[in-house]
What does this fold into?
Amino acid sequence: MSTSKNPETLGLHAGYRADPATGAVAVPIHQTTSYQFRDTAHAAALFSLQELGPIYTRIGGPTADVLEQRIAAMEGGAAALAVSSGQAASAFAVQNIAHAGDNIVTSTDLYGGTWNLFANTFKDMGIEVRFVDPADPQAFARATDDKTRAYYAETLPNPKLRVFPIKEVADIGRPLGIPLIMDNTAAPVICRPFEHGAAVVVYSTTKYLGGHGTSIGGMIVDGGNFDWEAHKARQPYLNQPDPSYHGAVWTEAVKPIGPVAYIIKARTTLLRDLGSAMSPFNAFLTIQGVETVALRMERHCENAVKVADFLSKHPAVESVIFPGLMTGEAKARADRYLGGKYGALMGMVLKGGADAGKAFIDKLQMFYHVANIGDARSLAIHPATTTHSQLSAEEQEATGVSPGYVRLSIGIEHIDDIIADLSQALS
Ligand code: PLP
It folds into this structure.
C-alpha cells in the first residue's frame, strides 16, 4: 500500500494499518496530554531528537501523526505538521523562516483572514509583507530583495477564483533560495503544488479535507524538495545555530531523518512555543474527512460545472465567476493546475445588485448561509454585506466583490436538488 501514489488509496491507508495494541482498524483517539517514558535514557533520546516519538500533545501525538502522514503522502511531500487552524498554519509557515526585519512577497488574491494576518499582525511583528498582483508572475521578482525569505499564494483564491501561476513563481524563487508556500485549501487532490515546484503547502483542514464542517484545523506540508542548505544567507534560520534548541543547525540536525529541516523546526520551536496544537479529537474527525476527500472532490467539481452552466444561462444572473468559464491566461492556468477540474467555488453577480444578492440568500432553502467553504453541504454568502462589509465600495471592487456578488460553495448533494434550490431562490 505504501507504494501507491493515488490519493483515493493513500487517504484511506497512508500512515496507519491497525492499532498494534488492540488491532483497531479505525485510528484511535489518543486523548491524553502526556506519554510515559520507558526510562531516563528514552526520555533523553526523545528530547534530543535522537529518537522520534510522542512526548506531550502540544508538540504532537499518535492521532495527529496519522493525519500528518496521510496528508503528506497524498500531497507527495516529505512530512507534515498538524496545527489548530488554517490561520495557525499560514502564520507558522511564514514565521518558521521569516523574522523581524525580513520580508515575504505575497499574491494579493488572499483569504481575508490571511490578508489581515499579513498586513497587520505580521507588520506589528516586524515582518514586512509585499503584496503583488499574480496576473504578472514577474511582479514577485521585482518585489524581491536580500531580505525576502518566502513567496506566498493561494491555488484557487476566492472571490476572483483566478488560479495562481504556481510553476512560474516557484521557478523565479528557487534559484534565489526563496521557497513558494502555497495555500491549497480550495483545491486538495485536484492540485498537487509540489509537482509544480512549490516547497511548502498549507491547508485549512477546516474546509474540504475535514469536509463535514465539524472541526477547525490546519496543516503545513514540507515538500522535502527545497535545498535550504544551498542558500545559507537567504535562509539563516535553518542554517545557523538555533539558540532556542541547544544551538541546533536544523539542516544538519535532521540529516539522519530526511529532508525535513523546515517541518521539524516548525514543530520543535513554533509549536512548542506558541502552542497552536490540533487536539486528538479534531485530528480524528479530520482523518474521517481525509478518507473520502478524493471521492468528494470529484462530485464537488462535477456538480460545480453543472451549476456554472445553469447560472450562466439564467436571466437574473449578470455574470458567473468560475475558472471553467474563464478565457485567456486565466483559463489556461486553471487547465494547467487543476487537472481538468475547476474546483467547487463560484461567484455570481446578480443583475439587481446588493438587494438582489440579499433577497437571493434569504430565499435559499437547502443551501446553508454561512461564512465557511468546502463543506459537503452547499453553502452561500453575500460578501458585500458580510465578509467584505468593513471595506469601502472601492476596496470591495478591488478585491473582486461587487454589490450583487454571491459566493457559492457547491456541495455533493444531488445536482437536481442543488439546481432546484438555486432556481427557486433566483425566481
Ligand atoms: N486559507 C483559506 C484559503 C481559507 O479559506 C481559510 C478560512 O476560510 C483559511 C486559510 C483559514 O483557515 P481557518 O479558518 O481554519 O483558520
Summary: The chain has a mean pLDDT of 96. Residues 280-312 form the longest helix (33 residues).
